[in-house]
Write a structure and sequence with these properties.
The chain is built from 15 helices and 9 strands. It is an alpha/beta fold and about 375 residues long. Helices cover about 50% and strands about 15% of the residues. Strands 1, 2, 3, 4, 5, 6, 7, 8 and 9 form a 9-stranded mixed β-sheet that branches. The chain has 2 domains: about 160 residues, Spore Coat Polysaccharide Biosynthesis Protein SpsA, Chain A (Alpha-Beta Complex); about 190 residues, Tetratricopeptide repeat domain (Serine Threonine Protein Phosphatase 5, Tetratricopeptide repeat, Alpha Horseshoe), CATH 1.25.40.10. It is globular and about 75 Å long. The N and C termini lie far apart (about 75 Å).
Length: about 375
């Protein structure tokens, strides 16, 4: 047996059918470990041909993931969630059947407005590759250990996974994850990604100060690293915007971003907003124009996803503001038009375009 799909579920009756449909022609078996569904998830999984086991939920995502691995019989594992969709063809199976790699990276799109990045979703079914972490669980350390000790290789696979994105009230999810993340940062305080998500959960629950405190801890971890993790740009950016929205400067954070991550789009985005907050419109313009020239559909980062709107709608809106403040209403009208065309439902863009157009017409009269 070549490939097993490993899925953990809880109340996923809405999403699971689409996931099963997307993988059914690619995998040899589907293993589902359900952690307490009260809807039709288990019946849907069984009806879709999955082998289903039930596991008492113990606030530990890694334990649930590993339960699926214990049941899987394929030589390779594809781990995927119910609200994700796989796009792949026969070439994926050909690659898995012939490669000597220990793991494979797929293109992953985490949400509707997100750019893609590469994520470990395919790996050999062997007992020394297991998930760790009660939340934001990962098997990457085991794979990296095998690369270091055995000379194992990781390759790009011809596959893409798209996450449907989160909709509706995220409060229950945030309240569930908050204690898990608090324990996680105690157990692994040097993992910047956990501090980023702890801050994001606090932010989602409306506690901006607690969010900032978490991001500060993440920045402190990055400052202790000889070479900060690429993920550190996330906590720097979040903390910088917290300061800017609070009416404070973020010059020190911008300087560190430019030092550590000079070519990262988030560095440019934060730098532009910091300049705008200072009224330095001329400084912000070339930064924003650089972002607007990036093709978000072609951007595939090794580990990070960006909001694609910072290269389109949002960049255009900010450029419109800059040129408006600089007194060039024709250019302001152009960029507000670009923003309005990118997102026609935003009335603010249309009103600003109209105002800039009126002023530009007066200037020509």
């Amino acid at each position: 047996m070549l490939l097993s799909a490993a899925i953990i579920t809880r109340d996923e009756a809405e999403h699971l059918p689409g996931c099963l449909e997307s993988i059914s022609e690619i995998v040899d078996e589907i293993v589902v470990v359900d952690t307490g569904s009260r809807d039709a998830t288990v019946a849907i999984a069984r009806g879709g041909g999955a082998r289903v086991a039930c596991l008492l939920w113990r606030d530990d995502f890694a334990a649930a993931r590993n339960a699926t691995l214990d049941l899987a019989r394929g030589r390779w594992i594809l781990y995927i969630d119910a609200d994700e969709r796989l796009t792949a063809g026969a070439e994926l199976r050909d690659e898995l059947a012939t490669t000597n790699a220990v793991a494979g990276l797929v293109r992953f799109q985490p949400g509707r407005h997100s750019t893609r990045y590469r994520e470990y979703r395919l790996f050999r079914n062997r007992p020394d590759i297991r998930f760790r972490g009660a939340i934001h669980e990962t098997m990457v350390p085991d794979i990296q250990r095998l690369v270091a000790t055995e000379g194992a290789v990781v390759v790009d696979m011809p596959a893409e996974i798209r996450h449907l994105g989160y909709e509706g009230d995220q409060g229950p999810k945030h309240r569930r994850n908050l204690p898990l993340l608090r324990r996680a940062v105690q157990n692994d305080p040097d993992r910047i990604y956990l501090w980023f998500h702890l801050g994001a959960v606090h932010e989602g629950l409306g506690d901006a100060d607690a969010a900032a405190a978490a991001w500060i801890r993440g920045v402190e971890v990055a400052r202790r690293q000889s070479k900060p993790s690429p993920l550190a740009v996330l906590v720097y950016a979040k903390l910088a915007f917290y300061r800017l929205h609070s009416g404070h400067a973020a010059d020190d954070l911008v300087a560190e971003l430019r030092d550590y991550f000079p070519h990262d789009p988030l560095t440019a985005w934060v730098s532009a907003h910091n300049a705008m907050a200072r009224g330095q419109w001329n400084e912000a313009v070339p930064i924003l124009e650089g972002l607007a020239r990036i093709d978000a559909t072609a951007l595939i980062h090794p580990v990070l996803s960006y909001d694609e709107r910072i290269f389109g709608e949002f960049a255009a809106h900010c450029l419109g503001l800059c040129w408006f403040h600089l007194g060039d209403n024709a250019r302001a009208e152009h960029w507000f038009t670009m923003a309005a065309e990118a997102e026609p439902d935003v009335e603010e863009y249309r009103l600003k375009r109209q105002l800039a157009a009126v002023r530009a017409a007066r200037a020509r009269a």
